[in-house]
Write a structure and sequence with these properties.
Elements (H helix, E strand, L loop, with lengths): L1 E12 L2 E12 L3 E5 L6 H8 L7 E6 L2 E2 L4 H6 L1 E4 L11 H11 L6 H7 L15 H13 L5 E5 L7 H15 L4 E5 L3 H7 L2 E6 L2 E6 L1 H7 L6 H10 L5
Parallel strand pairs: 3-8, 3-9, 6-7, 7-8
Antiparallel strand pairs: 1-2, 1-4, 4-5, 9-10
The structure holds adenosine-5'-triphosphate and magnesium ion (MG).
Length: 240
């Protein structure tokens, strides 16, 4: 079953095609990484997929629901962590978790979610006083609290130390174990290679490759890594 179906998706800003006639499907149960240079169109595409930005052209179906025909139903099936966190930064962690919990019909228990993202010790700290990594963990917990079918994460691990990245990935894996789907963008090719089932490489608003990390790496030579495949496809560098 496809969790996501995207057809003819385009976003224009003036003369710029930030996303240019993109078509793809994502199978349920997969972790899919979206990579590409700054400005390639990752955030624009992700934010259209979650219904925050309106496409110039195109359709998006999430779990068999067209998000523009049936926005409320579609939005209940997804969790979202944006590149810019937009929560009430003066609220305490526990207040935020309780607030988001109460917004949904079938939420996950607040204490269980605090355990999953390892934030029990910070429950009474205001969001604004958390470190960058702790903020990301809180934002991930809030994105998952409605027990969504699909989780969209825009650069969830940017700026985190290795341990914080690991903690975040553990929480993502725990979420995904239930045949759920995760779509995330990242600039870290090591984690994309290690954790993603499939990688979408974007360049100038287009998808130029969509395949498993193994196949992409193999396509650029022997004994290569995801960095090599990225530099070859997204940047056009020769692989040494
Ligand atoms: N609201 C907007 N108005 C005009 N242009 C925009 C707007 N949002 C994005 N763009 C442009 O669209 C292109 C794609 O931007 P986008 O933020 O999607 O890139 P990205 O791949 O997420 O980059 P990054 O890796 O830096 O997060 C860029 O050229 C950007 O300047
Ligand atoms: Mg972005």
């Amino acid at each position: 079953m496809n969790a996501i179906e995207v057809t003819n998706l385009t976003k224009r800003y003036g003369n710029l095609n930030a996303v240019n006639n993109i078509n793809f499907n994502i199978e349920a149960g997969k972790i899919v990484g979206i990579v590409g240079a700054n400005g390639a169109g990752k955030t624009t595409m992700l934010e259209m997929m979650v219904g925050i930005r309106k496409p110039t052209i195109g359709n998006i179906r999430l779990m068999d629901t067209d998000i523009h025909e049936n926005e409320y139903v579609a939005k209940n099936k997804i969790g979202v962590l944006l590149q810019e966190q937009c929560v009430n930064k003066y609220a305490k962690v526990i207040e935020l978790f309780n607030f988001y919990h109460d917004l949904y019909e079938n939420p996950i228990d607040v204490e269980e979610m605090l355990d999953t993202v390892n934030l029990q010790d910070y429950r009474n700290v205001k969001f604004k006083n958390l470190s960058g990594g702790l903020k990301q963990r809180a934002a991930l917990g809030l994105a998952m609290i409605n027990n969504p079918d699909i989780l969209f994460l825009d650069e969830p691990t940017t700026g985190l130390d290795p341990e914080a990245r690991r903690t975040l990935w553990k929480a993502i894996f725990k979420f995904k174990s239930d045949n759920k789907t995760v779509v995330l963008s990242s600039h870290y090719m090591d984690e994309v290679q290690k954790y993603c089932d499939e990688v979408i490489i974007m360049k100038k608003g287009e998808i130029i490759q969509k395949n498993t990390p193994e196949a992409l790496i193999k396509s650029v030579g022997d004994n290569k890594f995801m960095d090599d495949a990225y530099l070859y496809y997204a940047v056009g560098e020769e692989v040494g």
